Amino acid sequence: MTGQNINKIPFIDDPLVLNEGILKKQEQKFQQLLDQLLASAKEYCADIRLIGSMAFRIKCPDFRSLEYKNLRYLTDLDFICLSPDIYKLQDMFLDLGWVENQNVLRLHGDKRRIFYHPTEELHSDIFIDKLRFCHVIDFKKRLTIDYPTISLADLLLEKMQIVEINKKDLVDTFVLLKQYDFSDEEKEDFINLGYIKSLLSNNWGFYKTFTENLYKGKKLIPQYLDGQDQQEVLDKLDRLNEELQNSAKSFKWKLRSWIGDKIKWYREVEDLQRD
């Protein structure tokens, strides 16, 4: 199998012509496919949680218009699962006619799997136990906090761990911050700032990437939001930065901060070749 055509966007005929109506129709197609996968996962007794762009669309229904305004299209459906369920999900995808990337299975099968849709130009990444990109986010004790997505705090971490953060990731982040406020504990419909502070106060590298992305967000937000939307998100970016700066840091964090960026503080993201 050759993999996806990078010049095509799933459920969009002409990638050069994007507008709100087209993006809404694409979203409806993605929702139908997601519903099928979630229902199948239940039939196979497997726990999965959605990550990525569609997760933000689901969790931020009041501000989808900001996604459309910024021409934020969807590309795939990615999930997190725990290792005991990966073989159930493997059987599920194969029974549904999806095709697995054998190269990824051979080299990274204990950490990540990739399945291609049988007819559409899209794929599904299944991350096992942890999200491993520029920084590692562990889900072994956090997978079932929310449904059908990962928790709001983990959605924020998913975006803010990206060293080379780009427009689509910033737009998703801004929409999340527009939709939700913070709490110092796990609370429905709030971003658990207490968890984020605890995690980053023990990990200088992740803290550095996260806070640098807050700065990038403040600098670039006028390109994507305006008026009251812009001000509300700016206030939350400022609050995040203040809370993180004032949080008590562990000895491990302080020790690593003394070394600083003389040593790379993040992981290089692997470009997995699709077969």
Features:
275 residues; alpha/beta; Beta Polymerase, domain 2; 2 domains; five-stranded mixed beta sheet; two-stranded antiparallel sheet; 11 helices; 12% strand; disordered N terminus
| Strand tally | 9
Beta fraction of the residues?
A: 5-15%
CATH topology description of the largest domain: Beta Polymerase, domain 2
Q: Total number of helical segments?
A: 11
The total tally of domains equals 2
Mean pLDDT: 95
**Cα-to-Cα separation, first versus last residue:** 6 Å
Strand order of the largest sheet: 1-2-5-4-3
CATH architecture level-2 label of the largest domain: 2-Layer Sandwich
Low-confidence spans: 1-6
Shape: globular
Alpha-beta classification = alpha/beta
Q: So what's the CATH class of the largest domain?
A: Alpha Beta
| Major beta-sheet overview | 5 strands, mixed
> What string, H for helix and E for strand, traces the elements in order?
HEHHEHEHEEEEHHEEHHHH
Give the helix level as a range of percent. Answer: 40-55%
Rg computed from alpha carbons, rounded to a whole number of angstroms: 19 Å
